[in-house]
Design goal:
By secondary structure, the chain is of the alpha/beta class. It contains 13 helices and eight strands. An eight-stranded parallel beta sheet has the order 1-2-3-4-5-6-7-8, sandwiched between helices.
């Protein structure tokens, strides 16, 4: 009897509701396991990404350390070179990066015997991180373009210098044709110049006429290619403005190595030009030039070395180079009573407004 009871109980069917509950529990368990597997897969993927990021970081740090080691070696060589060549020492670095708005690196290497690598490293070490390399004939213009193509901190301006134009005589049209081919040859060409008029060194009428012919061609190229016009003006203020009025000035005009007084500065500023001050602004006799500096609005101010010439105090007479720009920048900051870092940023911003973005990720 008892055995029958047990047998009956074991053969009793499972209720449907109980079976459904078990199925649901198993389904939930399967779902939970699937979610766990997915979470583990995501974790593995995250860990793999982390490992990849760490590997990239290690590689970046290794490259940085290598670059710093190379820079230290270059700076050590540079210090030795400056002493050996009896050149001015490196000044205290500017607090933030800024731009040398007009230089001649090719001429600087010849004049000072510093290598291109040392010139760029020296400038970078004092936070002069962008430069405008300016050609003065077809040969130096080609070199300026090649330099700008190879070095992101450099952009190029191309031209026939006014005094070269005067000396070319009957060869001037052919040389202008050669230069015109260079104007659109690279996106790193950002300016046409230095061009203009120089009545200090060219005093004969025929030479001055050739200067005007070349100047007119350069103005046309700047407008056709939407490039900055970099003007050389020496003892020719009135004729410079007259020619720009007659030919039609481009949108962006840099008065390179500005040498006028406040009245001429006002005439240029009224026309929307940028005034670019070299080391001569530090020379004691040049109070009229400093008065022109005083009236120049912050957004129309540029600073340049015009290296290898016009070295600022206290190294007047020594070969100039872009690494000496901080002397002029500090002088201008003190003269204008402005914060040095803010001035550096403004100068860099102004240079980009004139010559475009350098594309080198510098601020």
């Amino acid at each position: 009897m008892a055995e029958d009871s047990v047998r009956g109980a074991s053969q009793r069917p499972i209720k449907p509701s109980t079976a459904r509950g078990a199925d649901e529990t198993l389904a939930e368990l399967d779902e939970a396991l699937a979610e766990r597997d997915e979470a583990l897969a995501e974790r593995d993927e995250t860990l793999a990404e982390r490992d990849e990021t760490l590997a990239e970081l290690d590689e970046t740090l290794a490259e940085r350390d290598e670059a710093l080691a190379e820079l230290d070696e270059t700076l050590a060589e540079l210090d030795e070179a400056l002493i050996h060549l009896r050149l001015p020492p490196l000044p205290v670095a500017l607090p933030v990066s800024t731009t040398d708005a007009h230089t001649h690196i090719g001429s600087t290497t010849e004049y000072s015997q510093l290598s291109l690598e040392h010139i760029l490293a020296a400038a970078r070490s004092v936070n002069v991180t962008r430069l405008v390399e300016v050609g003065t004939d077809a040969g130096s213009s080609r070199e300026a373009i090649a330099m700008a193509d190879a070095h992101p901190e450099v952009v190029a301006a191309v031209a026939i210098h006014p005094n070269d134009a005067a000396r070319l005589g009957a060869q001037l049209p052919a040389e202008l044709a050669v230069l015109e081919q260079l104007v659109g040859s690279s996106p790193r060409v950002r300016g046409i110049g230095e061009t203009g008029l120089d009545y200090f060194r060219t005093t004969d009428a025929a030479g001055q006429a050739r200067q005007k012919e070349a100047f007119a061609a350069h103005i046309a190229w700047a407008k056709a290619h939407d490039l900055a016009l970099v003007i050389h003006d020496r003892d020719a203020h009135a004729d410079i403005l007259d020619m720009l009025a007659a030919e039609g000035a481009p949108e962006r005009v840099q008065m390179h190595c500005f040498s006028g007084d406040a009245a001429f500065a006002r005439a240029c500023l009224d026309r929307g030009f940028w005034l670019s001050f070299p080391g001569t602004v530090t020379f004691k006799p040049n109070e009229a030039l400093r008065e022109a500096l005083d009236i120049t609005p912050p957004d129309k101010l540029l600073v340049e070395t015009d290296a290898p010439y016009l070295t600022p105090l206290p190294y007047r007479g020594k070969p100039n180079s872009s690494y000496l720009l901080p002397h002029t920048v500090r002088f201008i900051a003190e003269r204008r009573g402005v914060d040095l870092a803010e001035l550096c940023v403004q100068l860099a911003t102004n240079a980009s407004a004139v010559f475009g973005d350098w594309g080198d990720d510098e601020v």
